[in-house]
Amino acid sequence: MIESWAWRKSRASKAVDDCVEVACTGVEVRVRDSKRRGGDIVALTPAAWAFFLRALDGPSSAPCADS
Prior knowledge:
Elements: E1 7-9, E2 20-24, E3 29-33, E4 42-44, H1 46-56
Antiparallel strand pairs: 1-2, 2-3, 3-4
């Protein structure tokens, strides 16, 4: 299942895999460390993800169309 999710790198990432990746599943927003792709994944509701992004730097940073 994890392989079928469309993971996106953070726009602030470097040319190497040193960032956070996000996958929008339609029900949840999943977040993982790109250096540990097989490691833990945090699952958030779209509302919680949108709140988190607004707290960081505004809603324009949302990678999911519906968040």
